[in-house]
């Protein structure tokens, strides 16, 4: 580290809380960004394939986004009217999100984050049903607030004395880890659905407030649900009177390449869809879309978010939606996703360290294992691969309950050449780590 970075690091250690972790052995100080590229304080360039945490959609500092924000500043556009006043960007964004959502989901609540969006959705589900119990999944992640950490299926995200009542965790559709030999993905999905129903029958009074499910479990290690599981989960949720919430904080806004939201593309029309991350291309914005019926059930109470629906954040989201449409980025997501799937599976054939490749569109995970038979989690090796990739100018992330899943989710604007570079660096990094034993 240079002298300035060392000084910042010492200040960070002194003043940020102990939960403020960082990815690398030597903290990375990023100071500049453009498109798919970022630069550190020493001027080194990186291909950004993790985008903060699955948050940059149309690319860093997109010219159209910058122009729109600068024009609003130059015209002295109000920065904070709050939702208690008319605000054109906020209303226009609500209209656009309703247009992108399945028919009937035409009411929108804005928040600062996915955590708050999920909080609101669960509150709405409990209010309209009159029930308390919410079903979430083991390995799932839904945010960092009190309720949403209770929804999480990870011990690493929970704190002493924190869990609330009214949440039960069911078996996730983790095919790679839990399917029996020779069992098809669809058969395993149906098995998980049966276990989901049994969870309701053994932990509830036969009625639930709802379910919250990620179509691809982000922090859990990009565990990709089979469509049959989501379809059966929806059927079971409605059977027991619940509201089905699709947590699309990571999968939403087109990231899977199959549709604007992942659940509808997989044959499910949720009662509510939550989103954040890619919606604002890095801006702090989240949202929930829901039906008139659910929204009306909340009438008579006051609830809004001080900064939710801020005009600058909603304007940035609107411009991002324009860019996705005008530049036909959904087609690029799909095309690059197919290319990456083929190349990543080839890496799996080449490197014994790669136990599983999963994902869709521009959302991919490589689960690393020390032994393909025992599937022992390769957590230390995952960290080593990240370090090796950083040295070679590629930024990736990790996830999974045991921290052994390489994750990457590049901007929607990524080119084939840049995808080839991702695979090339992963190839080199996996080889480098395999060549030097990692201490456990």
- Count of runs of 4 or more consecutive helical residues: 15
Kindly state the number of beta strands: 17
CATH superfamily of the largest domain: Type I PLP-dependent aspartate aminotransferase-like (Major domain)
How many domain regions?
Answer: 2
- Label the overall shape: globular
Over the alpha carbons, how many angstroms does the gyration radius reach?
Answer: 22 Å
Uncertain segments are: none
CATH top-level class of the largest domain: Alpha Beta
Major sheet description: 7 strands, mixed
| Strand residues, percent | 15-25%
Strand order of the largest sheet: 4-12-11-10-7-5-6
Mean pLDDT: 95
What would your notes on this structure say?
41% of the residues lie in helices and 17% in strands. It folds into 2 domains: 3-58 and 328-435, Aspartate Aminotransferase, domain 1; 67-326, Aspartate Aminotransferase, domain 2. The mean pLDDT is 95. Strands 4-12-11-10-7-5-6 form a 7-stranded mixed sheet, sandwiched between helices. Strands 1-2-3-15 form a 4-stranded mixed sheet. A 4-stranded antiparallel sheet has the order 13-14-17-16. Strand 16 (397-399) and strand 17 form a beta hairpin. The chain has 15 helices and 17 strands. It is an alpha/beta fold and 440 residues long. Helix 8 (185-203) runs parallel beside helix 9 and helix 14 packs across helix 15 (416-435).
């Amino acid at each position: 580290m240079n002298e300035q970075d060392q000084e910042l690091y010492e200040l960070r250690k002194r003043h940020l809380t102990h939960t403020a972790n960082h990815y690398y052995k030597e903290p990375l100080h990023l100071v500049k960004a453009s498109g798919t590229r970022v630069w550190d304080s020493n001027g080194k360039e990186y291909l950004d394939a993790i985008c903060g945490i699955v948050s940059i959609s149309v690319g860093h500092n997109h010219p159209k986004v910058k122009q729109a924000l600068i024009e609003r500043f130059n015209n002295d556009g109000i920065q904070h009217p709050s939702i208690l006043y008319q605000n054109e960007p906020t209303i226009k964004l609500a209209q656009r999100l309703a247009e992108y959502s399945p028919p009937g989901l035409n009411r929108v609540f804005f928040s600062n984050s996915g955590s708050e969006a999920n909080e609101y959705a669960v509150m709405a589900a409990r209010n309209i049903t009159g029930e308390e119990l919410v079903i979430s999944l083991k390995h799932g992640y839904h945010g960092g607030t009190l309720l949403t950490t209770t929804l999480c299926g990870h011990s690493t995200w929970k704190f002493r004395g924190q869990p609330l009542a009214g949440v039960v965790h069911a078996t996730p559709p983790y095919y790679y880890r839990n399917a029996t030999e020779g069992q098809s993905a669809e058969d395993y999905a149906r098995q998980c659905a049966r276990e989901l129903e049994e969870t309701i029958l053994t932990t509830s009074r036969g009625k639930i407030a709802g379910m919250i499910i990620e179509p691809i479990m982000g922090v859990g290690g990009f565990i990709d649900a089979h469509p049959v599981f989501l379809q059966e989960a929806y059927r079971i949720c409605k059977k027991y009177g619940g509201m089905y919430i699709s947590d699309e904080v990571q999968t939403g806004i087109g990231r899977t390449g199959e549709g604007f939201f992942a659940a509808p593309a997989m044959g499910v029309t949720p009662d509510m869809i939550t989103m954040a991350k890619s919606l604002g291309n890095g801006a702090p914005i989240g949202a929930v879309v829901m039906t008139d019926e659910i929204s009306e059930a909340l009438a008579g109470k006051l609830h809004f978010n001080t900064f939710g629906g801020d005009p600058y954040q909603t304007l940035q989201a609107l411009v991002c939606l324009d860019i996705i449409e005008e530049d036909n980025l959904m087609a690029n997501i799909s095309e690059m996703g197919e290319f990456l799937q083929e190349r990543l599976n080839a890496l799996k054939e080449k490197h014994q360290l790669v136990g599983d490749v999963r994902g869709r569109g521009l959302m991919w995970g490589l689960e690393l294992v020390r032994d393909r038979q025992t599937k022992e989690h390769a957590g230390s090796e995952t960290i080593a691969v990240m370090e090796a990739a950083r040295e070679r100018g590629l930024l990736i992330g990790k996830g999974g309950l045991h921290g052994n899943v390489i994750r990457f989710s590049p901007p929607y604007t990524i080119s084939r050449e840049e995808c080839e570079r991702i695979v090339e660096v992963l190839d080199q990094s996996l080889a480098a780590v395999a060549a030097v034993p990692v201490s456990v």
